[in-house]
């Protein structure tokens, strides 16, 4: 693929751990089909592929991953008819995600039906260079659309681009009027638990319900924006912190009384807020927005219908720490990774690395209980407590938001990969592996925590 110029930058990677890297969701039940796409799109062109063998699972992955592109193997739909894809296709179209359908045989009737739904239709014998060209063309088209819209398609709320413009407007107004403005970061409480219990689609619905509730509860001069994957930022012009906190207490109380109908039955939820007011017109847009999320050292379990005064930490931006735990029974792998990952966070984090021969030794070391951010690189097969057991314990007994988990193993079957993702792995790589690719994937995982 050396003759294809990728020249592509993924948009809105706040919705994904794979920053600046196109993420593809493939509906497929044919290993040969998947191998072809992984070879020419993932290995040769740096895209990331996740796979599902049925539409319901694909829809769940869509809400979990926020993909940039969807590829469908027509063998999954030929028997039942194209109409079975309508719901999933609508989900993609609503979010400006292009669809490519690959036909496993030449059937004009099926081709025409697919053309009515998909952005592109290709045959199974397509040349690799044509495949890559078509995918990149549609990804660039999507980027042009995302550059022009100011609404987050997943929630219908103003998007991050719109938020940046609004903060710039507020700072300019502050220079003229010297009246402060307030911003509030809001986020659903216990969202990981909701997603684990009911699924990502229900978790997304609860986030969307929160956005609509706040949107319908504020003044015309106020405005709400989607901020990264789980939260929103509310901008309150000419408002001081104390008034903003009173407003949030009222909204939190009202939201907790609501009940929402979902496909899993009736659910309710709460949200927490972090309030800041801004009085310095010399601050930059980036400085203002960096202050918005909850501090990383505040455990998720401590937040429940909670309003935080964020101004107290207004000037306390310090270098964050990242602890890297390597859990692998191969001593050579442990030593090699310790050497290769010493500078993995560049200047963004202060990195500390420790290595363990198995999961049991890792959990016996109190190091892992520090209130810091952790990246764990975990082997699948180990003599004491294997990789899946480590994942299970991390995701059920610890604050899961503090732990990024990457599986690094020789097991490459679809079942193994699916099982690891279900247990909570953020990424999965197969041995033997490329150090360059490993470093790139880890950096993207880390950047997703900002």
Automatic annotation (TrEMBL):
GGDEF domain residues: 179-311
The entry's keywords: Phosphoprotein
Residue intervals of the Response regulatory domain: 23-139, 323-446
Pfam families assigned: GGDEF, Response_reg
PROSITE patterns in UniProt: GGDEF, RESPONSE_REGULATORY
InterPro entries, alphabetized: Bact_response_regulator, CheY-like_superfamily, GGDEF_dom, Nucleotide_cyclase, Rev_trsase/Diguanyl_cyclase, Sig_transdc_resp-reg_receiver
Modification sites for 4-aspartylphosphate: 379
Protein name: Response regulator
Species per Swiss-Prot/TrEMBL record: Paenibacillus phytorum
Lineage, opening ranks: Bacteria, Bacillati, Bacillota, Bacilli, Bacillales
